[in-house]
């Protein structure tokens, strides 16, 4: 009697590639963090996260509200909430980190996109301050409702994305002396969040995380 072969899961190879890429960058980020190089830690942690969800149609885009990159990131954060429902590790981590890193990040105008838009457009402070306050209120409300974790994550990562843009696009001085608190806060938050996000990702290896961009090819 022939033993019937177990069908291979077509998503496993993609998951393994994403995991290998993500872990390589998070290890580099941890080294930078331990050495106090918070600029590099933020960049490398962001790359580590991006390795988990980036897809072909998003890798060359900028990041306005409707860009493919933001769409893919937000979809990834929604999936994290779904997978976190049973254990709640990520949700409880949000509670632990709120006063230490999340609240300071939300209170920092230098990682709030509307602040920079107001400066560019010559607007007064009223509108962006009102919008920023509304965003902070939404984050606080989401924190009290476990089913709203995705809303909190999206708000947080929109802020972190502004920080990422400042560093990656050369709009900040490495180890500079001005407007530095968001770099320190962002690095500490990512240092805590990324391992938990990776844990959730690793536990769901059979799920379809999408086709990774720039898959390895033969050198010739």
Structural class: mainly alpha
Please provide the count of β strands: 0
Tell me the major beta sheet.
none
Sheet-strand content, in percent, reads: under 5%
Query: Considering DSSP H and I runs of 4 or more, what fraction of the residues is helical?
Result: 55-70%
Secondary-structure element string: HHHHHHHH
Provide mean pLDDT, rounded.
90
Give the N-terminus to C-terminus distance in angstroms: 44 Å
Q: Tell me the radius of gyration.
A: 19 Å
Characteristics of this structure?
66% helix, mainly alpha, disordered N terminus
How would you characterize this protein structure?
This protein is an all-alpha fold and 220 residues long. It has one domain (12-203). It has 8 helices and no strands. It has helices at residues 12-34, 38-53, 68-84, 89-106, 113-121, 125-143, 149-168, 181-203. Helix 6 crosses helix 7 (149-168). It is globular, with a radius of gyration of 19 Å. Mean pLDDT is 90; it is low at 3-8.
Write the layout of secondary structure elements.
Layout: H1 12-34, H2 38-53, H3 68-84, H4 89-106, H5 113-121, H6 125-143, H7 149-168, H8 181-203
Helix pairs in contact: 1-2, 1-8, 2-7, 2-8, 3-7, 4-6, 4-7, 4-8, 6-7
Give a brief description.
With 220 residues, the protein is mostly helical.
């Amino acid at each position: 009697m022939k033993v019937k072969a177990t069908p291979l899961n077509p998503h496993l190879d993609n998951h393994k590639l994403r995991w290998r890429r993500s872990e390589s960058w998070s290890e580099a980020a941890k080294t930078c963090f331990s050495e106090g190089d918070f600029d590099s830690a933020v960049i490398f942690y962001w790359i580590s996260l991006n390795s988990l969800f980036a897809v072909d149609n998003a890798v060359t885009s900028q990041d306005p509200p409707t860009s493919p990159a933001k769409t893919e990131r937000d979809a990834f954060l929604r999936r994290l909430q779904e997978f976190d429902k049973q254990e709640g590790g990520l949700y409880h981590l949000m509670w632990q980190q709120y006063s230490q890193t999340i609240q300071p990040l939300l209170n920092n105008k230098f990682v709030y996109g509307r602040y920079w838009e107001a400066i560019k457009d010559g607007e007064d402070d009223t509108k962006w301050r009102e919008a920023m306050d509304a965003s902070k209120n939404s984050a606080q409300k989401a924190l009290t409702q476990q089913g709203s974790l995705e809303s909190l994550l999206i708000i947080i990562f929109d802020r972190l994305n502004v920080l990422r843009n400042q560093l990656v696009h050369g709009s900040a001085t490495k180890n500079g002396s001005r407007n530095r608190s968001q770099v320190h806060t962002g690095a500490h938050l990512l240092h805590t969040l990324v391992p938990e996000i990776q844990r959730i990702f690793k536990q769901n290896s059979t799920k379809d995380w999408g086709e990774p961009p720039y898959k390895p090819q033969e050198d010739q």
